[in-house]
Amino acid sequence: MESETIISKQFYTNSSSVISEQALNSTFFGTKEKTQKIHVERPKSSIGLAVIVATFLLMIGGVCSVFLLQDDFEQFHFERIASTWGLPFLIITTLLFFYQTGVFLYSSYLYLKYKPVESVSDDLLPTCTIIVPAYNEGKLVWDTLLSLADSNYPAEKLQLLAIDDGSKDDTWYWMQEAKAKLGDRVTIFQQPKNQGKRQALYRGFKLGTGEIFVTVDSDSIVKKDTLRNLVSPFVVNEKCGAVAGNVQVLNNKSAILPKMLNVSFVMSFEFQRSVESQLGSVLCTPGALAAYKRDAVFNCLPEWINQTFMGQPSDIGEDRALTNMILKQGFEVRFQRNAVVLTNVPEEYKGLYKMFIRWARSNVRENLMMAKYVFTDFRKESKFGARMLFLNQFFKIAMTYPFILFMFYFIAVHPILFLSSTFLGILIFSSFSMIFYAKRYNLSESFWAYSYSVFYTFSLFWIAPYAIATASKKGWLTRGL
């Protein structure tokens, strides 16, 4: 998934078993599809309303406080400039602010130019191998496999492989049930023991016969036309080496956190990856849904499966690593907004922060890897976009600790000024996400952009500095949850 969003949030300080009918019939798809109804325990609407109201009260309080405490802000500003470190820090942050503003304006321009590739005809579609690795997913893997088999893709061009990575629950049973229902349309395998997602994917790559490999997480549901939309860029663009799908939240009706993440995902994918796609340099093809050219995968497969970091085998960030290695070969990596997948996200704080730590560690590792080639002649075409995106990531990582130290200093010296300026900043910077979501989908859910920013700022700000300090640590973290 998209790890750069985690650090950018800090920089700016700014399972259900099947998809519900309401989710499939929503504006994500634009067309209604019949599916099995299930009972999902939903939070009372009054709780969600209370969270949003509380968020706006905090932001309004911040605006009022900033207005009333203008003299205190000016005094703090002068004191900071007069200090030994204050003026250099101010100059650096001012330069970064203008740099980020320029990047944002350029990104907005690129987003307006973005258009997904329309699906090509059946006779032009390439042969495709879908790999579904699974670990302790239970009945979710059944729903994933059935949604893939129900895709509007020529059956004779589709190879569906499901690999149980040594699950300790009934995942293998549900794979067998899917096999019984789908017959020769799916082939299932069972690893002798849990070896990690990378090893499961590697087995799929070695067994796959398709011109295009598609990887799908086993807790995800695809739309009928997702696969054909996902692979169409390979047909019209021979330079395309990988394609990222559009990940949306499946369980966004079941808890508060998924509601917040739903808005965040839309911003991360439909804005950020659209921009990256225009530059031919999407930095991460998400594990939930991604497609890769066969030759591009096999060119780097030995390096990928044997990848290490600080002498330890890499057992996280397999999606970001593969994307990086494909970019390094000179291929373009694109994003398809019309290739939608719905995936489950954590509903509790523990699962969420563990997932974010894994993403952030992968982000640190792969930015170090990208630094080794991004300023070389790795691509015949323009390298400006890839270099700009890398620098954007580099500055965010490099400034993580200075901003954290300044934040703690600000809190210790002027806690009221810190709180008021923070809530004002959230109101300003999150308004773009809110407006973007409201325009793409609906207004009522868009207000979760503000609540998510408040939640992230005060409970997840530590993710980026912690991930940098522990980047060499192994472990999937969320597998035991």
UniProtKB/TrEMBL annotation:
The keyword Transmembrane applies. The chain crosses the membrane at residues 47-69, 89-112, 389-410, 416-437, 449-469. One of its GO terms (molecular function) is hyaluronan synthase activity. One of its GO terms (biological process) is extracellular matrix assembly. InterPro entries: Nucleotide-diphossugar_trans. Pfam families: Glyco_tranf_2_3. This is Hyaluronan synthase. It comes from Flavobacterium nitrogenifigens.
